[in-house]
Amino acid sequence: MPPQQRVHAAQLVARNVDRALRLQSHWRIAVYAALPWELDCGPLIALAESRGCRVFLPCIDRRRASRAMRFVRMQGPLQYNRLGIAEPQGGEVIAARWLDVAFLPLVGFDRSGVRLGAGGGFYDRAFAFRQLRSAWHAPRLIGLAYAFQEVASIRAAAHDVLMDAVVSEEGVVRCTTGC
After folding, report:
1. Which of 16, 29, 83, 123 has the fewest Cβ atoms within 10 angstroms?
2. Domain extents for the chain?
3. Which class would CATH give 3-174?
4. CB-side exposure of 12: number of CA atoms within 13 Å?
5. pLDDT digits 0-9 by tens, 50-69
6. By 3-state DSSP, what share of the chain in percent is helix, strand and coil, each rounded to 5?
């Protein structure tokens, strides 16, 4: 996708998030520092900050063998980790279960809420607690994608944590999680 179209798509996604969710000033939201092939969160971050949301970015554990991820308040300079992902260097840390909404990067998705990620399993581990709940499904998990990333069906693995919705430049896909 040409750079100009990528910028426009990111703006449309932020607008579609605004229409669907109406971000609230007291919300704690997680976004991601986009890699070159992922949908840029810049416009969404600007929207969230303008609404007074507390914005967090994922940080992976520095130990090579660890697949743990925590969420750190986005403030101050970012530094690249061993995977080339920008992360905050300090600030308020929050456990995944206390977020209100988490916006997730993805490679592909289907309407049942199955997400193909980059393969590290960081998000599935961070939000695994959602699989144990029958009533309370916070935080909402919302994928951010280009519309062309939707596929007919993805076979879910036992450890996959399903998304509640996916927002693309074309609109919102409500997944079958019931949230």
Report:
1. 83
2. 3-174
3. alpha beta
4. 16
5. 999 999 999 987 665 556 78
6. 25, 25, 50
